[in-house]
## 1
Amino acid sequence: MTESSLSRRGSRLTVDDWLDAAMQVLISEGVGAIKISRLCDRLGVTKGSFYWHFTDIAALMKALADHCRRVEDAAQKTLADLHELPPADRIEAMVQLVSDPRRWTVESAVRTWAETDESIATTVAAIDDQVFRIAHEAMRDLGFEEPEAHARATTLLYAGIGYLHARPRHGPASEDDKRIFIDLLTGR
């Protein structure tokens, strides 16, 4: 049981409490582990509390999917704000975003869920498209011709996705790793 669930035991849970618990299970154990009984145990409440907020597990999963889409929408806004930066700074900011532990835990879990849920997959694809567009524009702004700008933007996208999936086994990228990667992408 988490510290937050202990402090909430004496008060009524909210939909956000249930979504937070479901997100924690999604991140730590995957979408298949999200079960009413597991969430109730995590929050220290009975199933009646769950049914107070949701008609069934499908309603929770829809609310969780909506929550994940809002998180991804916020990520898209953050990416859109990068447009104002100089091109090399845009690339560096994108590398920093993907290597931020708060971001990659959620992103990795959502990407895994997207493998089995088309609505989540559509949201993830939109983020990937935006990452590619921003990286491609930055590479063009750095003076790379089209084929090379495309290849470098694709490399950034694929490396970011690979990092999300490989990081649990290989650990986080060091600052040197990130700097060398940025130099490889942006250097001539």
Note: The two ends are 52 Å apart (CA to CA).
## 2
Amino acid sequence: MRSPIAIVDVDRPDSWTRYRAGLCASCAANCCTMPLEVQLSDLVRLGLVDAFEAEHEDPKRIAKRLQKARLIDHFNHKHLLFTLARRADGDCQYLDARTRLCTVYEQRPETCRLHPQKKSPKPGWCPYGRKA
């Protein structure tokens, strides 16, 4: 029997758990409910932008197209970061609602690959548990 999972507020890093190997196996995928900033290379890997477009098109035009298609919510032109759109329930568009597993795991963005060890509001800590 699994031990109970604490309720955590993903918006309050002071309520997070220090990351350790195996933690993800019993988590509710809370990291997949936070806004996700990605780079153009991530959008290419996800198949939302083709490599030719990424190399030859102005990122602002790409962002406009992706916003119109509701694939991104925001574009930070200063840092060239795109914020992926989320579903109405706040989950990442690539999170399977039933299994709580990533549907694009092999193509997942660099931010996801490095979370929570390096890319996180609180590196080394994770919003592990059930959502508040």
Note: Strands lie at 7-8, 17-18, 37-38, 72-76, 81-84, 125-126, 130-131.
## 3
Amino acid sequence: MNRIIIFLTAFVLLAFASCSSHKYHTTRVQNLDFNQFKTYGWLEPVDSLSKDYYNNDIAKGNIMTTANKEIEARGLTYSKENPDVLFRYIAIVNNKSRMVYSSPYYAGWGWGGPWGWGGPWGFYGGYYGGSYPVGKERVRYGHIIFEAIDRKTNSVIWQARGTTEVNEPEKAINELPKAVTGIMKEYPLPILKK
């Protein structure tokens, strides 16, 4: 019974872990009051010199529409003339390699063979073997990086990155709103309550 509970618990934890495929990282200028910024504008996206997965009208539209919505939900107003803070994004898709490991195995044993001397109710023991590296595989990762720049000082005051594995370009583009929303959650201002 205990094995079944342990197995089900491990399965549920694995299922929840696999639901969040994006990873987010952020950095900012400490002790800076982000409430001072009331208006925002955009700089042109930075050319990432990577694969063109995110360099199309649909991807740009998904990124910009979601980002504008998230920024304005935090109380900033878009301004083409003299914004307080400027945003830009960088989209990168690159190839990396990662180790592939063998599956762990279970070696069971008992008294007198698989049925033991006591039949199926006999004593059984066993051990689990670990996995070991068997090779490498190429993996494609997509990164969306947002930066906020103080227009007065022309310096980056906030940066956040969302990273996910890219297996299908179309799926990655369709998931851009989710990625941008996750990145903007890292911005130092909360969403204003209406």
Note: Confidence is low (pLDDT under 50) at residues 1-20.
## 4
Amino acid sequence: MSKSKIGVLVMSYGTPESLDQVEAYYTHIRRGHPPTAEQLEELTSRYEQIVGGFFPLRENTNRQVAALEETLNRQYGHDELEFVCYQGLKHAHPLIEEGVEQMAKDGISQAIGVVLAPHYSVMSVGGYIQRAQAKADELDLSMSFVKDYHVHPKLIEALVNRVQDALSKFGPIETVRDQVRVLFSAHSLPARILELNDPYPDQLLETSRAIADRVGLSQWQFSWQSAGQTSVPWLGPDILDTLRTVVAEEQVKQVLVAPVGFVSDHLEVLYDLDIEAQALARELDIHLERTASLNTDPLYIDTLADVVNQQLERK
């Protein structure tokens, strides 16, 4: 008897695989408009500074997808059911549409989509789902989606562990958790999402509050990072402005950044925080640490496997 195969489309933002792909990647982000020479040089320079030609996000994503497929089949697969994971990227190959098309070519008739981002916004996760659903409809593929998982118990546990580990770099947790300012952060989005009653900001606060409550933090706040360089306003305050403010107004000397909106090491973590924010911290004479990224943490992979299986059971 042949197994029933469930396709799992694992979606993420995507990244170039090498420096010579940066221009094509940036052009896709800019909806077909090539970057200026100055813009291209700036982005390429950022990649060179963090990776020297090796792009960790792509490899991290590959490992996350492989770990998810193994975990799904170990925990929820059986003699009559097998999970097969595919990638679908927003701005690099295989694109979301290409991932859906590959599932159809492989004879998959039922699929579930999940994004490597725990928090829902119509401008982020919503866009991924829309693209995947349109292609699935075109190919007559039955597909449903995980929209968010921002307060899943295992996700919160994984993030709590990271905050505690990072706090220990400042001293005994019982002492420093009331002294270190913890800045939870996520990728900013255009401020117009507020007019849409988009759940993104509230979900991020829910995640942050759940972690703070578990760790027993009294000195924490939320800040945004990595806003796009466009003519429209983005959600703020930016984390660099927040650092300046807490130092100038409250004489804060120890800061922990917990980028809870990101699940992997990539440009917004390795450059925006590890290089740009650290440079400012040295200028402000403060001790700045950040939490380790989730990457293939078993608790995170278990979270993904659980929400995918829950989605399957709803069908």
Note: Residues 27 and 34 are 5 Å apart (CA to CA).
